[in-house]
Amino acid sequence: MDRLALIQAARGTRPLDLAITNVQLVNVFTCEIYPADIGILGNRIALVGPAGAYQLEANAYYDGSGKWACPGFVDTHLHIESSMVTPANYATAVLPFGTTTSIIDPHEIGNVLGMDGIRYMLEASEGIPLRTYLTISSCVPAVPGKETAGADFGPAEVAEMLSWPRVIGLGEMMDFMGIVNGNPKMVGIVDESLKAGVKVQGHSPLLSGRALNAYIASGIDNDHELRIGEEGIEKLRLGLLPLLKVSTFGNYARPIVPKLLDLPHLELALCTDDISPADLLKNGHMDRVIREMLYHGVAPAVAIRWATLNGARHYQLRDHGAIAPGYLADVVLLSSLAEVRASEVFVDGQLLVEDGKILQAIPEPETTIEMRNSVHIQPLSADNFRLKPPIANGEVPVNVMELLPTRLSKLTQMTATVKDGQIDLASLGDDICTIAIVPRHGQSHPPVVALLKGLGLQRATLASSIAHDSHNILITGHQPEDMLLAVQELVGCGGGLIFVEDGTILGKVELPIAGLMSPKPVSELAVEMQKMDDLAVALGIPHRAKALATTGLALTVIPEVRLSDLLGMVDVATQEPIPVFPNFD
Q: Distance (Å, rounded) from C-alpha 281 to C-alpha 275?
């Protein structure tokens, strides 16, 4: 954009390209709402003034009467792979909800395809109308030495990728104990980011006290993994910016916001993190996070500031996140302020969404990374999914990973009956199933097997190549033969999710792009995922994430117990293995 031309348009000595008139402007600088007109030249805003105050000469006019104008929403932390679609199809889905800028961490595909996966996301988002900025994945795998993935990023790899275009930060530093304990690799990765002058995303659920101080001292700038209000207050007091989220996996803001509102001054930013296809189309995107703020009594203009300007400023995105002279012309017209319902969306001054519908297809950018089947496993038998107790008959103590409704977990000790060398799952109650991880990146080690409580899966087997963040194949079920069949089916289609019962496939979603994503649009994939969610409910899974309820059980940085392909059950705080049979292993 020619700045001289922009100055002339602001003065009125040359016509505007577009005038949006008679709107109620949500001013995110002062958090006021008042009648205004907006003048646009090219891809930038030339002027903003009181409604009717200036005689605007423009090539086109858009009457915004009865609507509220706010900046396009800025999602400060998310994984496109969690929506299981390509960046172009993701843009098609989220733009109608008012999201115009996304700051993505492609660590899901990075854990599968390494630097090629990061480059794919960069190429696949080039030129799409959703402004897409990258943070470079800091933890591939999430906890080095405790699990294996398809790649291993160190300071050198991270430093190279930080030089790529549209890279504005380091992705979430999940190995918070590695930082606290001074692990040279983790500290070195953060140091490279500080040298590059970019923001460093945090990930430290429930971390507090001196350990939290040590974590922040390393250079961490923000954190989206808060769990309770007291945690949020402590992090704010120590200079960490909370990125409050509402995601498919839970409403993390609800137990936090009331406590934070007691503070005399409060600045936050908002994000979605992980949104599944069916959930996205049903409940929205960043608009849903803003609605959650309104639920707590936050003034609409303040909540919208948290969803726009604060995130843009935090990531040093000049000219993003506000409706003001010189800013990028990303404007959302809301038909309802109370419900945060986007009606029209302008990006770069162009109308892309009208009456809530996207006006044109978004083509897939050309990419240089060839996508091949990424599911590579060693030969298996049903016996690989049987726990081998230390006695032939009798009772034996067992450690069980218990999934809580919050997606956190705890260790539960129980007593199991052994008959003819086999664990009798029924002796542990009706909410116990076998859980296993099958290495799928060509590793030579065998699957690990443990016991899971709290999933609610009453029968059948659920298997997925989505298993944050190393994305080995994660299986929960009751019959070893079904577990084997489920894995074989995922190998055949290149990854996805599947339910199997008594040798019959109940439902399957194929995700051939790195075992994480589909080339289909969100609208089609949402139908498939809704069927899987319905199956999950019918089979007894009560969790909000339904068919995706198990996908975080291998993430060895979420308290308290997780499953690793190398160690089996892991104590997240100590990163030490937990034996299934405590008195024998």
A: 10
Name the amino acid, one letter, at 581.
F
The pLDDT of residue 267: 94
Contact between 398 and 451 under an 8 Å Cβ cutoff? The reply is: yes
The yes-or-no verdict on residue 1 having pLDDT over 80 is no
Which tokens in the block code for residue 337? 């302020």
Q: Are 549 and 543 in contact (CB under 8 A)?
A: yes
pLDDT at 229 over 80: yes
Other C-beta atoms closer than 10 Å to the C-beta of 579 total 13
The answer to whether residues 112 and 79 touch, using CB atoms and an 8 Å cutoff, is no
User: Is domain 72-318 given the CATH code 3.40.50.300 in the classification?
Assistant: no
pLDDT exceeds 60 at position 585 = no
In 3D space, the residue among 260, 215, 259 whose CA is nearest the CA of residue 238 turns out to be: 215
Question: Within 13 Å and on the Cβ side, how many CA atoms surround 556?
Answer: 32
190: closest CA among 213, 221, 233? 221
Q: Are 229 and 258 in contact (CB under 8 A)?
A: yes
> What is the pTM for the complete model shown?
0.94
- CA–CA separation, 423 and 414 (whole Å): 12
Q: Do the Cβ atoms of 330 and 322 come closer than 8 Å? A: no
Residues 6 or more apart whose CB falls under 8 angstroms from that of 299 comprise: 31
Where are the alpha helices (H) located in 114-183, listed in sequence order? 115-124, 155-161, 176-180
Q: How far is CA 557 from the centre of its chain?
A: 15
The rounded mean pLDDT for the chain is 96
Look at residue 536 and tell me whether its pLDDT is greater than 80. yes
Please, what is the angle between helix 209-217 and helix 229-237, to 10°? 50
Distance CA 200, CA 171 (A): 7
Domain definitions of the chain by residue range: 72-318, 382-578
Provide the pLDDT for residue 406. 78
Per-residue pLDDT tens digits for 480-510: 999 999 999 999 999 999 999 999 999 999 9
Phi-psi region of 205 (alpha: psi -120 to 50; beta: other; left: phi over 0): beta
Q: What is the largest CA-CA distance in the chain?
A: 91
Closest-CA residue to 457 (of 493, 489, 486): 486
CA dihedral 502, 493, 564, 535 (to 10 degrees): -50
Three-class secondary structure of residue 213 per DSSP: helix
Q: Which amino acid is at 414?
A: M
